[in-house]
Amino acid sequence: MQQVTTVNVNGLRAAARKGYAQWLAASDADVVCLQEVRAEPHQLLPEIREPDGWHTVYAPSSAKGRAGVALLTRREPEAVRVGFGEPEFAESGRYVEADLPGVTVASLYLPSGEVGTERQAEKERFMAAFLPYLTELRQRSAAGGREVLVCGDWNIAHQEADLKNWRANRRSAGFLPEERDWLTRLLDPADGGYVDVVRTLHPEQNGPYSWWSYRGRAFDNDSGWRIDYAMATPGLAGRAVKAYVERAATHDERWSDHAPVTAVFGP
Question: Which domain holds residue 182?
Answer without folding.
Answer: 3-265
